[in-house]
Amino acid sequence: MSQTTKMLIPDAEGFEDAAKILGAGGLVAFPTETVYGLGGDARNDHAVARIFEAKGRPKFNPLIVHVPDIETAKTHVEWGDAADRLASAFWPGPLTLVLPLKPDAGLSPLVTADLPTVAIRVPAHPVARQLLQTFGGPVAAPSANPSGRISPTQAAHVSAGLSGRIEAILDGGACDVGVESTIVGLSDTPTLLRPGGLPVEALEQALGAPLSHHGKSDPLTAPGQMTSHYAPGAPMRLNVTDPEPGERLLGFGPVDCTLNLSRAGDLTEAAANLFHHLHALDAQGDGPIAVSPIPQTGLGLAINDRLKRAAAPRDV
Ligand code: AMP
Ligand code: MG
What we know:
Helix content is about 30%, strand content about 15%. The chain is α/β, with parallel strands linked by helices. It folds into 2 domains: about 5-180, DHBP synthase (Alpha-Beta Complex), CATH 3.90.870.10; about 235-310, no CATH class. The site of magnesium ion has 3 residues, from loops. Adenosine monophosphate binds near residues 98 and 115.
């Protein structure tokens, strides 16, 4: 997709424009205290699919959801005492909490890679804060660079990497370099998932207890690393053009099928539908599922990666 990428200034009009773009499912890059983030409405499947598309990410790894305040965070996640202690001590700031999703959280399953948990934070950068307040909704935002390239710390870096692929860049000047958010998992024993800007000692002091560490030898919890992550109960066959009798076809393109990822053959639409359709097929029963071939280009890489995991032998 090629379009004009607007450069927005962080004044009243710029924030209004940016919020309007997000509300319409568009993408806006904005500064946080770590790096520039590539923001999209975390409730909008199509917007989130476009984040992966714009970055050229070959996998649907979970994204951090940015919210303006603790109250908003509580509408999406199961809050608890540990979350309260850490958030009241360190939000807004470079701390991401991984918490169980509320049943009615309203977030796109693409944001969480269909996990039952979500990574959430309240950023401290004044431009990010004002944007979130003006928009009034949760914003999914990985770093605003093409996959595999260096993280951007200036609007010009974002523009060099993503111009023509996103609607706008909110120019908030240079951000502090190199302080990634510390990620703490709270869905179980409080666990350090990624070290970052906040030292462990400060976190442990606020928590009043030591943090477990996510050692390399621990069972893998990052979804991208598991062979069979979300798998429907039914057996799945991929790259099928002629389904067997009794197979339900998850289609792509103009085919006769049970559910279609995108009749028009649009990979962004297919990505937006992927988890919803897998869940719907699962809810229908456990008859075998066949899946149409998905082109191995653009978002097709991430879709095929996830389908391969869903079709992998279940005993791994
Ligand atoms: P970034 O690409 O810098 O925004 O990093 C996002 C980080 O958050 C990655 O390391 C993810 O694996 C991690 N993450 C996001 N959501 C979750 C989750 N639900 N559970 C565990 N880790 C998560
Ligand atoms: Mg990144």
